[in-house]
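Reopening closed ticket. The problem is back. First fold of the pair:
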Amino acid sequence: MPAPLIDAARGVGMGSGAILRRVELPIDLQEHGMMLAGAIPTALLAVAVDFLFGQAQYWLVPRGVNPLRNS
């Protein structure tokens, strides 16, 4: 966050909560690169964990109960 924007907000009498809600957050939400830098690894991690749990379920559930392993 550029310091002049925060100084201007203080100059018009905004408190710290108002500066956070009206100045800092709206500008930070427009940084699409930063949002993707967090969203892509999170999505990949979720897919990997789902795959690992699926594999664990396949191998840990006994053959007679698991319809996928009846053969």
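Second fold of the pair, where the issue appears:
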Amino acid sequence: MPIWTPTELDAIGNAEELRIQSRRADGTLRNPVIIWVVRLDDNLYIRAVGGPTSPWFKGTQDRQEGRISAGGIERDVTFAPIDPSLHPAIDHQYRTKYVNQPAQYVDPCLTSEAHAATLALFPS
């Protein structure tokens, strides 16, 4: 499986927002959605604050493939489920990275619904 380069990890991990497009079953890309992204060690994670019923999250489930753009980097990616034991560390990353954002936007990223809709991003 391909890995992120240090430059990609820094650029995407430091970006305030990420543009995500998942692939439909027929291979076409959905319309882009702007979401938050966090970095933990050498991995990147995203969450749907609306949980697994969030439209963009449901779209990732068709093929587990898509495209992201953040920090000047555009890459095709694979979406993968995560080990639930990572949630506390990912929560910490959201709290730390988005400390200057209002709690009304950060707190929904830390719920059990958001945990159920957390994905790792891998370059493809």
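Update: turned out to be a display glitch only; the data is intact. Residues 6-123 form a domain with the Pnp Oxidase; Chain A fold (CATH 2.30.110.10). Strands lie at 18-22, 33-35, 37-40, 43-47, 65-70, 73-81, 118-123. Please close again.
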